[in-house]
Amino acid sequence: MYALVCYDVPAARTVKYHKLLGKYLIRLQESVFAGDLTEVQWKKLVKALDQVFEAGDNIIAVTTSNRHNITVKQLAGAGEWSQRTDHHGSDVI
Q1: pTM given for the model
Q2: Residues of the chain scoring pLDDT < 50
């Protein structure tokens, strides 16, 4: 599966999420991580996220069966979009 995980948490808690998500996914932006995971890895990540989650934390995950079912684009300016190719993560398919 391919997962894109974003977080918006109090500044004092960002390091926890950064370290945790970095174990499973690659960092695309400050609080945005993505990559390929097996079902077992996804379940472990969800369990770990649940353990650090506190009221007021905002975590969003978008998943798809594999990375070939999603296109990631980045706004380049002037209404133009460029396709991101660094979102592939691991070689898990």
Answers
A1: 0.79
A2: 89-93
